[in-house]
Every structure is written in structure tokens, then in C-alpha cells.
Amino acid sequence: MQQHTHTDINLSELINKPLEESRQGEALAELPLETATIVNGRHFYIESYGCQMNFNDSEIVASILATEGYSLTNNYENADLILLNTCSIREKAEERVRSRLKTLTQMKRKKPQTLIGILGCMAERLKKSLLEQEQIVDIVIGPDSYRSLPALIAEAEGGQKAVNVLLSREETYADVNPVRLDSNGVSAFVSIMRGCDNMCSFCVVPFTRGRERSRSAYSIVAEAQNLFDRGYREVTLLGQNVDSYKWQHPETEQTTTFAQLLEMVAQISPLLRVRFSTSHPKDMTNDVLHTMAKYRNICKYIHLPVQSGSSRVLQQMNRTYDRQWYIGRIEAIRQILPGCGISTDIIAGFCTETDDDHAETLSMMEYVHYDMAYMFAYSERPGTLAARRYPDDVPDEIKNRRLQQIIALQNQHSLLRNQADVGKVFTVLVEKNSKRSDKDLCGRTDQNKMVVFPRGQYQPGDYVEVLIESCTSASLKGKALGYTYP
Ligand code: 5AD
Ligand code: SF4
Questions:
Q1: 11 and 159 both lie in a single domain
Q2: H helix runs in 71-186, sequence order
Q3: Is residue 210 part of a domain?
Q4: Which of 23, 128, 179, 349 could cross-link 62 (Cys pair, CB 3.0–4.6 Å)?
Q5: CATH no. for residue 258?
Q6: Could you list the residue range(s) of the whole structural domain that residue 472 is in?
Q7: This prediction's pTM
Q8: pLDDT category, 182, cuts 50, 70, 90?
Q9: 442 by DSSP, 3-state: which?
Q10: Is the CB of 1 under 6 A from ligand 1?
Q11: What's residue 33's pLDDT?
């Protein structure tokens, strides 16, 4: 699902900047990749849009290209191959990619031999038509076809347009060890499943990313262990709906559930933090909550998209839960995991939404007091159930007014939630220098709140006890009291 994403993604600092802003000429500009055994003298540049899953997919693509001898560049003008890993979740996401392609058209006039590839959800959604609409594109490749990228590059070098948008029921890239692009060396994403079978009526993901399939639990644990051995201290397990993770051992036929997988990863080391995203209210079990309670290193934070507070709208969205059920899940979290951070996704102005439905969304927000939310105006996506069944009948003006109300209320709640942390001490895993000043470090609490504090003797990767002294609606500020593990 989503722009969850949305959290601060390190990768973006290297590869998701507008081209003009990319840090040209810096040390990172040419990066021989860790899995490269041979170097072919060619360079690729990759930019990612959308969800965390897409950013992690770019790391898989980088690994596949590294094995072929490619090096990464963050200066697209030096690249032989420019890749855009795209998102289709809302119309605006696609518009951003189209405008990026316009910039690249000028570059390609100067350097016509540069190949341009469109990866990800837009490639899958638009398929061949993308090549007709966007003349400068040479390669179109969907999320399940990245292994065929080298073959497609060869085809495109021969002057042909190359396309592979086959979706798979099996592909999980389990054996591909992602190259960590622009990593802070502390936190990394690990994909545990691909695709989605839920068919929420507004959502294009089941069409662009295909059927749900779970990756081998062993390969997940091995990847997390490898990250820990290399000094990483936090992994985020990624799936569109992690609660429906289910992997069957090919020989013993024993199944591993998400709660069991979580436990396996948590047991790697008490010093490895485990996060996950995204949970689905219909599938999130108490087992998962009890496993979270059992391990200090499983972060007490749940992203639980509500989408709407109105049972009638939820039914139209095909979310398969209602308001009461969702409230029951929040109560279970509060009871089993006191102090757990909770965030959500909300869509304003879905088809047929009335003022009363909207009021129910606001009242749900009042009930939960989310720590954080990703909030969107409904954007009709061609081919989805909603596009086929329901008219997009809430005028833009009303959609936007409702969205602004939702955002304003969430800002109040985020501030209240952060204010409640002032005066308390939290364990923070240090990630990097603060954006504002090199004198400060930043890292997250268990509850996924960003904390900024003076550097002192601390470094990225340290666990530090921090006393919170002040806050805004976006972050906490404090002072370090000492190492968590002396
Ligand atoms: N319009 C607006 N928001 C959408 N989302 C998914 N599809 C749409 C759409 N068509 C939002 C949902 C989802 C998040 C990732 O993006 O809130 O949880
Ligand atoms: Fe889309 Fe629903 Fe699947 Fe999330 S759970 S990716 S919103 S269909």
C-alpha cells in the first residue's frame, strides 16, 4: 500500500531528489556496488517514487544490475541507463513521473545513447501504451520482472523498445540480497511479501503488483541477520498487508504466520529493532500484539489504516470491517500494548461520501487521537472496482475542504500526542545527523517519533536514553542521559 513512504526514507536523499537537486559530483556520485564481482564500466541512475516497497524494489534492481557489473551514479548526466521506479496510487504520483520524463527528454537530445527505463506500478498499469505516449522511454518493466532487466537492456541497446510486464504468482526475489542505496547504515527495509489480494475498491495496487505471495521465512531471517552482522540495528518488515503473511515450508509443510515470523526476527538479537508496515484492521490478530508485548526490541508502533470512520463508506471501499470492528482493534492495542504509537491512512471524499460520513471520520480521529496520519483526497484510478462501480461524485472543492479539516485536526492531535511525551525518557536509536545542524543527532523512539538532541559522544547506531524537553507537531527535542546498554 502506500505512500508509507512517507516516513523519512534515507534512500530518497540519494535517489529521489529532483534531478537538478541531486548531489552531483559528491563522493557518493560513483558507487561501486557491494555485490559487484566484475565492473563493466557502465553506470545507472535510479529514482524512486511512492511507497517503501518501491524503494526496497530499487535496492533489488540495484543488486541485479550490480551483478551485471553496473555501478551506481547519482548524477543522471553520467548515466548510461536512467531508471524511474514509479507509483500509480494517485493521479498526482503519475503526473510527477510524466513531468520528470519531460526533463529527461532534453538530456536525451544531448546524449541519445542513454537508455531510459520505467519500472514499477506505472509500467504495469500502462504497459506498451507508455512507450507510445512517452517516446523517450526505451524499457518498460513491471514489479515482478526485474530479473529480466539485463536482457531488456540488451534488447534496447539493439535499438528495440523492450517490455516485460508479466506478473508472477511466485516471484519474491528471496535470493536477491538488496544493495542498500544511500543507507544510513542503521536501518533497512526487508520485504516479506509482494502483491495484495484485498481488492479495496479505490486501490490500484492489486492490479499493478499482482497476487499476494509470502517470501520464505528463512530467507527473511537470513537477510535480517546479515544486516545485523554488518552493523544495522533496525529492520522494517514490509508488505501491503503483513498480517496475512503466511509461508509454508516446502518439505515439512509447516506454516509460519506473521506473529511467528516477527518472533524469529526479534530473536536475532535484542540489539536489533524490528518494525513492520502495513497492518490491516481486518487481519491484525491479538497474537501479533502479544508477540510485540513479549519482545522489547519489537517496536511498539502500529500503522493501521482506517481510510474512513463511516461503516457505510468502509463497505463501499470493500475494506471488510466496520467502524465498531476498527474501534475493537484499537482497544486491543491499548490493552495489550499500553503506550503503543498508532498512525493511520485516511481518504477524504470517496465516492458518495456525505457530510455525515465525513463527520464520522473526524469523530474516529477524536476517538483514537492518532500520533500521525497520511491523508489524501480520493483520486479515481482507472480499472479499480470503484472506478467501474461508483461515480466519483464528491466535487474537488468539497474533497479538498474535507481533507483540510482532517489535516488540521490531525495536526492538533499530533501536537497533543507529542506534548504528552515532554518530561518523559525514551530509548532512541540514533540514525544520523539532524537535517538542521551537524551539532545535533536524530533518531526514533519505539513509537516511531523523530527525536533531535545534541550530539555529545553519541553516534549513529547507538541506543541512547533521551529526556524529552520540548516538541512541535512533527518531532521531539531532548537531551541525552546516557547509553541504554552501558
Ligand atoms: N485515492 C486516494 N488515496 C488512495 N490510497 C490508495 N488508493 C488511493 C486512491 N485511489 C491511499 C490509502 C492507502 C494509502 C497507501 O494510499 O489511504 O492506505
Ligand atoms: Fe490497496 Fe487495500 Fe491492498 Fe492496501 S490492502 S494495497 S489499500 S488493496
A1: yes
A2: 91-110, 121-126, 128-133, 149-157
A3: yes
A4: 179
A5: 3.30.750.210
A6: 425-483
A7: 0.92
A8: confident
A9: strand
A10: yes
A11: 53
Q: Is 314 near ligand 2, meaning CB less than 6 Å away? A: no
233, 334, 462 from 266: Cα distances, Å:
11, 22, 18
Burial readout 75-96 (b: 16 or more C-beta within 10 A, e: otherwise): bbebbbbbbbbbbbbbeebbeb
Q: pLDDT band at residue 373, thresholds of 50, 70 and 90? A: very high
With a cut of 50, say whether residue 23 has pLDDT above it: no
With a 6 A CB cut-off, is 200 part of the ligand 1 pocket?
no
Distance between CA atoms of 24 and 329, rounded to whole angstroms? 47
Q: Name the residue among 139, 108, 222, 231 with its Cα closest to residue 176.
A: 222
Structural domain total, the chain? 4
Query: Which ligand 2 atom sits nearest the alpha carbon of residue 209?
Result: 6
Distance CA 436, CA 453 (A): 11
User: Are residues 271 and 216 both part of a single domain?
Assistant: yes
248 belongs to a structural domain? yes
Is residue 1 pLDDT above 70, yes or no?
no
Same domain, yes or no: 350 and 473:
no
Q: What CATH number did the domain enclosing 332 receive?
A: 3.30.750.200
Q: Closest ligand to 306 CA?
A: 1
**Is residue 8 domain-shared with residue 129, that is, in the same domain?**
yes
- pLDDT of amino acid 30: 42
User: Of 66-75, 306-315, 369-378, which gets the smallest average pLDDT?
Assistant: 66-75
Mutate to test the pocket of ligand 1, among 5, 7, 89 (most ligand atoms within 8 A of CB): 89
The residue whose CB lies within 8 Å of the most ligand 2 atoms, and thus the one to mutate among 5, 209, 240, 284, is 240
- Report the CATH number at residue 121: 3.40.50.12160
